[in-house]
Amino acid sequence: MRTSIERRRQIAAWLAAQKCDALVAVSSGFHSFLEPNTVFVLSDVKPMAPSAVIVRRDGTAALIITPDWDLHRAEMASSTESTLGAVDLVEALAAALKREGLRAERTATDGVALLPLALAERMHALLGGRAQAHDGLIRSTARCRSQDELERSQKATWIAEQGYQRLLEVARPGVREYEMVGDIYCHMKALGGDDNFLLVSASQHNHAVRAAGSRVLEEGDIILAEITPSFEGQFVQICRTVAIGAGPPGYDEKYAILQDSMQRGLKAAVPGATLAEVTEAMNGSLREAGYGDYCRPPYMRVRGHGLGLTSNLPGDIDTNNKTVLEEGMVFVMHPNQYIPETGYLMCGEPVVVTPEGARAFSTEMARPDRIAV
Amino acid sequence: MNAATGIATMHPAVLLGAYGLDQDRMPADEFQIRMAAANALMDERGWRAIFAYGDATEHRELAWLSNCIPRMRWGIAMLPRQGAPRLLISMSPRDVAAMKLMTWIGDVHSGWTWAEVFDPWVAGFCAREAATPIRVGLLGRELMRPQFLETMTASTGERIALEPARGALASQLQVRRPRELVMLREACLRVDAAAEAMREAWHAGAGGMAAAIEAERAARAQAAHDVRVLFSVDGGATLLPFYGVIAGRSDPMIAYIAVKYMGYWADAFVTFAQAASPARVAVRRALDALLASARPGADGAELARAAKLAALAPHPVIGEVIGHRIGHSLAEDEALTASAATRLEPGGVYTLRAGTADPAAGCALLSAMIRVSDAGVEIMRKSD
Q: Which of A82, A232, B89, B195 has the fewest CB atoms within 10 Å, counting from its CB?
């Protein structure tokens, strides 16, 4: 059974428990690799513009997609029983609710909080403020990946690793950052990476990774790469560091601290552990090496985070996150860290939680790479 | 973007292309001129500040005033009539240094530390102003998520009256300034380079997706800030965004290509075919007629009559829309249609299009971009 259909069955059971007749899940068409897309989760269709899925209490569903000319693509991909193309989402939704006799007070919603006000206020007016807002319902329902989703995550990781290999081939002194990034972005797209949170930048002493600019690569630069492709809606992320030339003094030694942090994190991320505990385990490597004071912004952000478009749970790998890990949760674990002697270094893998700890999807773990000049 | 008028494309998770404030091409005096216009608006409306909000999807007013374009979330510029402006961007404190490269505003902070960066600024602003409540124009309210507005109004409380200001700067934004025209022409060059790369790849035997990737590659090799491509593998009846691996090749191949360069979009519909088709011939004729009829003051009805494809069905991707303004957004303001009162106005840059998906004649889509001035119409680019 398709995962989206199974998730709709879970939603149907939830609707029955809540004494609701339907769930209206909406999406603006905006995509973040850090947020779930409710329409995608419930229909398998990644929308380009405002769209909605109506899930009924019997588990059947209707997809309303805009623009109307996108109907054919949506119909081909959607797991819903019916698909409707619309010019205006709210008008189409109003007609659908009326046609099906669904009353606002017995309707739940998810995703309205993520809409821009222009759309959220129209939704509010449509439902008269009587619908029950349950923003986060889909995020919670989809918090553990299905087998099919894990396979897509695996494929996305393969694409990311191919992208990194391409980077190692094209990154040379004299190449501009945007030329390098444009090339590897298109390389991954050809492999099926339809979206990509791709930040790659270079400097002699990095403080963070950023979007590519016009800077020309030169010997002595350290290239930071946050490669985050999506394959059919499943984002993954690998974080890599490569020096052009030998790298700064202590490059291998300092990078080994991050590798040790990663290993501790993988071991700690077992079902039942909290992300705060995982973070503590990862920070231990830095503390023992004398960098405890650097385990905070602006020297790092978080030790990893969830990944859309399915569910961004378990959230940030951070000392304040008490979320309990469950088998099948997917996130990126990255002990990326500013080290005074070397600058910012990146080391990260997409992982899935298993009873033995977190398992990386990557075939090769991050290491302090070099490009010979 | 208004999905009813513009072409919907797949929004990316991050605007990953090169973008910054290049003061050689967008000098400080340009923003002094723009801020003078904003100040005049404040004086006219009785506002003591403008708050301009935008996100990675839509950021027209924020970008015009600050040059900042959020890469993945939101940004808000607080621009007081008197005193120093502040820009907040929803990125971590670690990322602020990179964000500063996008704007002339020196006081840039992470929006994640709201209580430390918004509230103190507001406290200082309120202390300087005598009135209560202080009237502030709010640009981009319609783009905010509900919780953002709640957070902001909780911070401002009764001290500030936030007055929705949608469209208040329209008369300024609709007349392209010289520095903007330079960027728009650069964007046109890049969209044409992308179209040419796609054409070459398709004629060399590439499938629809592979040819589309070559278009994107060409644009990104020329420092594109953002690229959107929709392509066909069914003869042009439908257009697809990238998603997984899409096999197939069709003749003709139709595509929509949009390239953003230094904050400004150019777009193109293109149709490639091995042999001339009745649809392409008719659409070419319609686009030529549309461009010939384009003049300052021409309305949608007049343009629609010129572009009418006798006995051929319109292409569903464009429907009844003949065109619209283009710039910071892919589709700006009211569309040009047969029934709308919208006119081509001097100072504006527009994208115009013609297309058909006809069961007998086949499919074709072509477009052009024009600049309208008091002297007439300049064709900035045109699909072959």
A: A82
Tell me the nearest-neighbour CA distance from B316 into chain A, angstroms: 6
pLDDT at B130: 83
Contact in structure between A352 and A362 (CB atoms under 8 Å): no
Measured between beta carbons, which residues in chain A are less than 8 angstroms from residue B236?
none
> Complex ipTM above 0.90?
yes
A13: nearest Cα among A51, A77, A68, A58: A58
Q: Which residues pair with B260 in a beta bridge?
A: B226, B265
Q: Do domains B28-172 and B178-382 have the same CATH topology?
A: no
Q: Mutation test of the interface with chain B: which of A188, A210, A216, A337, choosing the one with the most B Cβ atoms within 10 A? A: A210
Separation CA A320–CA A306 (nearest Å): 15
* Domains with residue ranges and CATH for chain A: 3-141 (3.40.350.10), 147-371 (3.90.230.10)
Selection from B218, B248, B226 nearest residue B236 by Cα: B248
On the question of pLDDT at B3 being above 60, the answer is no
Fold (topology level) of B178-382: Creatine Amidinohydrolase (3.90.230)
Residues of B with Cβ-Cβ distance to A320 under 8 angstroms: none
Q: Rg for chain B (alpha carbons), in Å? A: 22
Q: Which residues of B touch A228 (CB under 8 A)?
A: 13
Q: Nearest Cβ partner of B221 from A182, A190, A191?
A: A182
Whether the full predicted model's pTM is greater than 0.95, yes or no, is yes
Domain limits of chain B?
A: 28-172, 178-382
Q: Mind listing the pLDDT tens digit for each residue in A55-95?
A: 999 999 999 999 999 999 999 999 999 999 999 999 999 99
Residue range B270-311, pLDDT digits in tens: 999 999 899 999 999 999 999 999 999 999 999 999 988 877
